[in-house]
Each structure stands twice: as structure tokens, then as C-alpha cells.
């Protein structure tokens, strides 16, 4: 756990941006209930944490021994992507999240991970846990399904591995059981009656279980159109920043920051996403926002790349990184002092335009105002969301501490 603690403790010293925003104290010291949560385990074995470890190792903030831990995390993240592939093209630049074909790296990584699980040993355990052998069986099953499908059916060019799960079956059985009352062991006739009722109710289910929706509405398209008159629907699509933009903000502030610091590297990563989501395709603006050379502040971005051959992420310029860092600091300081007031966004926007140096945008006067508005909306969205998360986390910790103190006082008859 030492590499994780190193990442967590270093992130806590960053003023505004962090490498692993999802990493919390409950990941390092989970209680009995938290130890069985899949969500926490997956967050610990993520590509972002591995990239953060690599960056800190390269800066000497973590020992070289942490490379082994980072390699395991990176390989497990790739394995999760391999068994959850659900798109025919690159999703966020992740090659292992694409559908499995003979040309994708899935089979090679499956072989690597099977050897890893076979050689894995758990210190202090007399026998291997079932999940160790279970991973090998699951990988062998996926490989066999692909071999059979690709050899017998030439029309099948790819496999969406995320579909190889039993959630749809569990969902339909849950619908049937819900229509059978308190009968936990229905007869064949009751089962058929429950199935008919489920079909008539459009396979609706409670939705609070541990299964994801299986898009069963496509099965009942004709049935729905028979009972429902045709209507015209119009959906307005709003341009929003990706969730990964919200994952890189922290709450502390230090005045002087070096290019190689974790704060600036995390800020550069966020700036890359801001540039990527900018709808302005002006070449002059692109030169303003994107760096022509790779700097020390881009170390974390380099480790975040999924391929060494092709660079898919954006490398922001120094001016943009300094602008976003200063803006985030200004917004957070204002929220700390004035968050209770009304019309926060308008007030912060005026302060934002007046206190930040915008001279680097003068190269494109045509789009200067538009770029300022875009940068403000991006940074404000990030900082406001993160500020609320951190405050809610702080209030929850204070409440837990007060509740514990109250229980101790009761036990001590105070």
C-alpha cells in the first residue's frame, strides 16, 4: 500500500489539481463493508493511478520499487477493458476497450494475464482464492468463444465481450419473480404466467439490483408501437465537458509551483481536455493553446497515453496551463470566502476577466472573447463541482467524528 499512500499524500498537497481524484482514505483503510465493494477495487486498479505512480517515480517522489505495483495496476486496467469491450472504434483512445478481433491486442494480453494469475501467490494465505482460478477460466472461455465464432462463422468479424454476462437473464428472472408475489418457488404454470405479465408490463423491473440495463426495449418495439400512438420527439443535445474533466481538481493552494510538480502536471492534463473539447477549429487559436514541444509539465500526460506509437492526448501550452492554474486558484479562494452568496457565477466571471492575464490570446483577436468565455465556463464547471464534492466529504467526515464521539460519551455515561 505504500505506493498508494505516496500518491494520496502527494495529491493532498496539490493546490487545485490531482492525479487520482477518486483515491480517498477509504481506499487505503477500508472497513469490513468497504472491503467487498467492487467499485473501490476497480478505482484502485485504474489507468489514472498507474500513470500518476509512473509520473511520481520519474520525479523521484516514489521509489523505483513502485514500478512493479504500477505495472500490475496498468495490466489489470487493460484486462478490465478487454472483458468489457463494447465499441467498434477507439473509445477515449483505449485500444483494449474496442471490440475483440484478430488484429486487436486482446488475445496477447489474455496470454500475459493468464501466466500472471498462474504465478501469483498471496502472502499469508494457505490456498489461492477462488477468483485467481476464476480469472483463468473466464479468459479461457472468452478465447474459446472467439475461436469458435471466428472459425465457423466468417461473417463475424468482432466480439463485444461486454455482452458475455448474465445480467439480461437475471433481469428477466427478477421480473418474473416480482410478478409471482411471495412465491419463491413457482411452478411451471406460475412461471409462464409471470413471464406473460412481465411481457405485458414491458419487462419493467425495480432497477435497484446489481445488474445493468440490458436494452430490452428493442425486443418489444412492435408491441410498444401497437399500444402507443406515434409521437414526434425532439432532443436537444447540450455540449458538456467529459466526466474525466471533473476528476482532476483538488482543494489546497501553494503560491510557487515548478513545472515538474504534480500540481502543474495534473493541471496540464486537464488543460488538454479543455483544448480537446473546444469547438473552435481556428488554426491560430490552436497554436495558442497547443504546445509544439513536449515540456516537463507534460510528464503525466505522456504516461496517460495508451500507445507509445500514436499520441492521442492534447499537450497544452505553458500560457494556457498558467492561465487555468491561476483561474482555478482564484475561483477556489473566492468560493471559500463567498460561496454562500447569490449570483456566484456572474460575480466570479467579472473577477475572472479582470484578474487573469489574457495577453496570450491577443494573437487571435477575432476569437479572443469567445475563448475567454469558453475557458471560464470550463474552469468554473470543474471548480464548482469539485468544491461541492470536497465540502460534502468534509461535512461527512465531521459528522462521522461527532457521531463516534457521541457514542463514546454514552458508553462512558457522560
UniProtKB/TrEMBL annotation:
| Domain Transposable element P transposase-like GTP-binding insertion per the UniProt entry, residue ranges | 17-88
What's the short name of a Pfam family annotated to this entry? TNP-like_GBD
Protein name in UniProt: Transposable element P transposase
Query: Taking every annotated instance into account, which residue ranges of this chain make up the domain Transposable element P transposase-like RNase H C-terminal?
Result: 166-192
InterPro entries named among the record's database cross-references:
TNP-like_GBD (IPR048366), TNP-like_RNaseH_C (IPR048367)
Amino acid at each position: 500500500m505504500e505506493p498508494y499512500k505516496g500518491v494520496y499524500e502527494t495529491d493532498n498537497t496539490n493546490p487545485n489539481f490531482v492525479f487520482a481524484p477518486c483515491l480517498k482514505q477509504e481506499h487505503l483503510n477500508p472497513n469490513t463493508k468497504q472491503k467487498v465493494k467492487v467499485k473501490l477495487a476497480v478505482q484502485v486498479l485504474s489507468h489514472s493511478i498507474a500513470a500518476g505512480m509512473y509520473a511520481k517515480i520519474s520525479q523521484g517522489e516514489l521509489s523505483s520499487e513502485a514500478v512493479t505495483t504500477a505495472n500490475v495496476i496498468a495490466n489489470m486496467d487493460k484486462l478490465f477493458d478487454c472483458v468489457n469491450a463494447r465499441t467498434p472504434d477507439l473509445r477515449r483512445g483505449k485500444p483494449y476497450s474496442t471490440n475483440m478481433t484478430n488484429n486487436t491486442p486482446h488475445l496477447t494480453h489474455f496470454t500475459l494475464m493468464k501466466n500472471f494469475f498462474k504465478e501469483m501467490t498471496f502472502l499469508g494465505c494457505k490456498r489461492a482464492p477462488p477468483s485467481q482460478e476464476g480469472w483463468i477460466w473466464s479468459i479461457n472461455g472468452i478465447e474459446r468463444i472467439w475461436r469458435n465464432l471466428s472459425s465457423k462463422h466468417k461473417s463475424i468479424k468482432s466480439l463485444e465481450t461486454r455482452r458475455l454476462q448474465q445480467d439480461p437473464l437475471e433481469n428477466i428472472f427478477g421480473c418474473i419473480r416480482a410478478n409471482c408475489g411471495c412465491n419463491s418457488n413457482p411452478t411451471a404454470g406460475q412461471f409462464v404466467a409471470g413471464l406473460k405479465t412481465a411481457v405485458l408490463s414491458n419487462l419493467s423491473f425495480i432497477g435497484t439490483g446489481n445488474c445493468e440495463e440490458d436494452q430490452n426495449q428493442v425486443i418489444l418495439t412492435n408491441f410498444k408501437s401497437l399500444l402507443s400512438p406515434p409521437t414526434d420527439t425532439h432532443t436537444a443535445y447540450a455540449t458538456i465537458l467529459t466526466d474525466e474533466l471533473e476528476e482532476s481538481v483538488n482543494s489546497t493552494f501553494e503560491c510557487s509551483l515548478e513545472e515538474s510538480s504534480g500540481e502543474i502536471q495534473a493541471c496540464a492534463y486537464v488543460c488538454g481536455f479543455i483544448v480537446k473539447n473546444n469547438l473552435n477549429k481556428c488554426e491560430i487559436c490552436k497554436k495558442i493553446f497547443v504546445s509544439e514541444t513536449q515540456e516537463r509539465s507534460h510528464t503525466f500526460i505522456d504516461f496517460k497515453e495508451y500507445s507509445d506509437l500514436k499520441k492521442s492526448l492534447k499537450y497544452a501550452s505553458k500560457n494556457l496551463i498558467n492561465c487555468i492554474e491561476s483561474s482555478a486558484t482564484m475561483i477556489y479562494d473566492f468560493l471559500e470566502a463567498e460561496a454562500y452568496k447569490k449570483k456566484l457565477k456572474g460575480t466570479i466571471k467579472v473577477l475572472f476577466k479582470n484578474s487573469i492575464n489574457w495577453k496570450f490570446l491577443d494573437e487571435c483577436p477575432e476569437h479572443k472573447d469567445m475563448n475567454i468565455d469558453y475557458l471560464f465556463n470550463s474552469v468554473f464547471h470543474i471548480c464548482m463541482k469539485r468544491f461541492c464534492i470536497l465540502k460534502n466529504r468534509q461535512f461527512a467526515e465531521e459528522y462521522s467524528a461527532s457521531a463516534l464521539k457521541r457514542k463514546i460519551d454514552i458508553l462512558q455515561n457522560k
